Amino acid sequence: MLISADTRYFIVKSFNHDNVLHAQRDGIWATQEKNAEIFSEAFRTARDVILIFSVNKSGKFQGYARMESAPGTAEMPTWTKGLLWKSSGAFYIRWITICDISFYHLSSLLNRLNEDQPVFVGRDGQEIDPETGAQLCNIVDESRVH
Question: What is the phi/psi pair of residue 71, to 5°?
Answer without folding.
Answer: -55, 140
